[in-house]
Amino acid sequence: MRLLITRPEEDAVVFKAQLIALGHDVTIEPLLMISTDGTDDIDLDGAQAIIATSRNGLRALAASPQIDAAKGLLLFAVGPGTAATARSLGFTTIVEGPSNAAELIPLISEHAEVNSGPLVHLAGDHVKSSFVDELQRLGFFVSQPIVYTTRVATRLASALVASMRNKRIDGVILLSPRTAEVYADLVGQHNLGTACTGIVHFCISAATAARLACLEGVPVRCAERPNLQEMIALIGPATAQSGESRSERR
Fold first, then answer.
1. pLDDT above 70 for 247
2. How many domains does the chain have?
3. Residue 19, number of CB atoms within 10 A of its CB
4. For 102-237, where are the alpha helices, taking DSSP H only?
5. What is the mean pLDDT of residues 29-54?
6. What are the beta bridge partners of residue 203?
7. Looking at the structure, do residues 93 and 121 belong to the same domain, yes or no?
8. So what's the pLDDT on residue 245?
9. Which residues contact 25 (CB under 8 A, 6 or more apart)?
């Protein structure tokens, strides 16, 4: 299957290798670019734990002078990918939660102390306030330095536009609601709405798929759980179907 990965470059390269190993033909077109430029704002003085809801937060921490001190703290990580990044950086005390921040809250309540030091959430510039609001409602003090920022793509590469128009892309992989929103905007900008009706859009969540509502007639499939393993499982069965449909067109 000819797939397009839209996630940021560093993570896209790893995901591409996994999909190629499964026999897919993969193109990368990052729609979000990450800058880890807030490392000076990380203060771990008295902190009892770190919360990482994104690998980008950990990458920012890795570039900070605080990284050595951080490794001695308890780390709460959203999903297996973030936990794996933490282990690669040398963290040893990791509580791995499900693949979204809201489901991490019960684990934080179980393992952290309300009357102890602050929880430090490594946040991006588009973080949802509801996560920290709920932790504060439970009595935790939460510090939330903005350690990375996101820049969005303003155009698609001309080669990709041509591939989509000429039916050389079978599937688009969308791994966040914001990525899907940017994608939908760029599809409109390049007048690719009709071309997209022949492309399967693999979405990591229902919230991600909802951002494609403005694209009429676009095929959408959602992972059962919001993680890469589920995405690979979702894409896998489509391979044979895609091959069959191309054979029929020929």
1. no
2. 2
3. 20
4. 105-111, 129-137, 158-165, 177-189, 193-196, 206-210, 228-235
5. 91
6. 174, 222
7. yes
8. 38
9. 1, 2, 3
